[in-house]
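FAQ: What does the model actually see?

It sees only this:
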Amino acid sequence: MIRECEPRQSETIYEIVNDAAQAYKGVIPVDCWNEPYMPIEELLHEIKEGVQFWGYEEDGKLLGVMGIQDVDDVSLIRHAYVRTEKRNSGIGGKLITHLKTLTNKPLLIGTWSAANWAIRFYEKHGFKVVSIEEKNNLLKKYWNVSERQVETSVVLVQV
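And it is asked to produce this:
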C-alpha cells in the first residue's frame, strides 16, 4: 500500500534512506560520500523545506520511500529509496507512478551521474537526461546543492 508518510516515521525514513544509499558507496565521488549518507538533521530539514514523503508499506512495514517537492513552477522527485532486501521488486516503480499523479507541474529528478542503475530506472519510468548546460541551470535554480554535486549529477525531465 502507498500512503503519505507521517512525521513520526522520520526515523524509519532515515533508516531506509541510509540503508539503500549504501549502493552509492564507492560509486559516487569519495568527497561526496557522508556517513551516514543523510544525517537525521538533514532529513528533518528536507521535510521542513517541503519534501512530502510517500511510502510503500507491506504488512505494516515501510519498505520504500520517495519524496515530492514543489519548487516554483516545477515539482521535484526527491530521495527515492527502497530497502536493500526489497530492491528490484517493483516498489520504486509503484512509488514513482503514484507521485506522478500528484502534480500537473513539470517533474524533475536529480541523481548522481555515476548511479547508472538509478538513471536507467528513471528512464524506464518516462524520464530523460537533459544536456549538461540545462542540468547546470536546473540544479542551480531548483536545488540547493554544492558546486561539486552539480558537477557530478544529472537531471532528468519527464517526457
